[in-house]
Amino acid sequence: MLVEAGAVTGARPSQLERLEVGDLELDHADGPRLLMPSSRKGKGVKRIDRNPVPILGGLARKLEQAAGTRAASAPLLLRTNGTAWNSARADHREGFRRAAANAGLGAEVTFYALRHSSIVRQLLAAVPVRLVAVVHDTSIPMIEKSYSRYIGDHADALIRRSLLDIASPAEATSPGRHA
After folding, report:
1. 68/157 Cα distance (integer angstroms)
2. What is the C-alpha to C-alpha distance for residues 13 and 74, in angstroms, rounded to an integer?
3. In whole angstroms, what is the distance from residue 19 CA to residue 17 CA?
4. What residues make up the domain containing 130?
5. What are the DSSP calls for 98-152, one per residue?
6. Which tens digit of pLDDT belongs to each residue from 109-134?
7. What integer pLDDT is reported at residue 134 of this predicted model?
8. Within a domain: 177
9. What's the total number of domains in the chain?
10. CATH at 142
11. 170 in a domain, yes or no?
């Protein structure tokens, strides 16, 4: 469940481990979502806010079933042995490393690959960078710095849709078609 939630939301392991049962909103008007705790990155004491992150029904049903009848303040995601995840102990690393190896991926592939692919997927889907930043608890400059090189090859198609076509009608239509 931790990996699936990470793949869908792009959240850091430290955020996912702090999700509580009450953070799963199944009846929101726009569809299910998680109230994702902000990260603790940086220095000093951080205020933990919770930002809504949309999820699809399949993950929502799995999370609802996994939550069972636990209290709203109980951890939402548990390890297979029933204990809470702990990113400080890097609980997720060894299991993820094994899964990546079984999938034929290199040792350099980490849990953060889920975050990176989520960000790139949203950028390629033309989600505004500001929204991508909010959902992933990061900044626009960090996204621009880190991800511009990954989406550059796809810029052609996006830009091409906005180009002004001033060709004559005969040049703009394909042979055999009328304008």
Report:
1. 45
2. 17
3. 6
4. 2-160
5. HHHHHTT--TT--THHHHHHHHHHHHHTT--HHHHHHHTT--HHHHHHHHHHHHG
6. 999 999 999 999 998 888 999 999 99
7. 93
8. no
9. 1
10. 1.10.443.10
11. no
